[in-house]
Amino acid sequence: MAILEVKNLSIEFGGLKAVEDFNLSLEKGELIAIIGPNGAGKTTIFNMLTGIYPPSNGTIHLDGENLLGRKPFQFAQAGIARTFQNIRLFSNASVIDNVKMANTADSNENFFESILRTPGMVEKERQLDEHALELLSLFGLEGQADTIAKNLPYGAQRRLEIVRALMLNPKVLLLDEPVAGMITTELDEMAQLVKELREKHGQTIILIEHHMNFVMPIVDRIIVLNFGKTISEGTPAEIQKDPRVIEAYLGGGFHGNA
Prior knowledge:
alpha/beta; Rossmann fold; 2 domains; 6-stranded mixed beta sheet; 4-stranded antiparallel beta sheet
């Protein structure tokens, strides 16, 4: 059974259909991309998959569990975590504190234990620090754990957002334009990191991205949207040859940005 099953997902804003009958069956460990022109409905789909927008129609099942009607934090608790187009860090907090804050979604800490600093609470904090540093090390950020987040270079801030999402231990990770604004060397590094998340750590990933030279080498499948509708779906090789995709979005090639 697919880990994420989405059927006929649709949403309207003021009578305008922003997304119409979007379908997705995602297997555990898959890495797929959703692409399309600006305004095609990509981020709107992410917003529905994380409970920010309630859909007008359709269903969302994660591991067979119906998520419709739940609040965003309940989507996160169920196992869907995301990053955003625009970086949303706690800019004046340290790198490691940004990561540890995500743990509150799954925290069962006792108020009095926290105040009294019981041995059990001290041990929990030690384990939390250890886990946060392990995740930071996946993205080469363990040496900057005490750095204030706003003082990180732009690319490192992007990586930190992903680490924070991973702290939720997601079943499905949604990456919204993870390489937006990056230079070529940073883009290549991020591609390798995302590949390793899937190949070495078994993470299931859906990403939105405009950089085709980032998407094509690493994903299993691509879904192409235009005006809120799916116009094509297939492997990178199939998408690259699809005349509907070229006409609607890619403009005749996959070189550079699209």
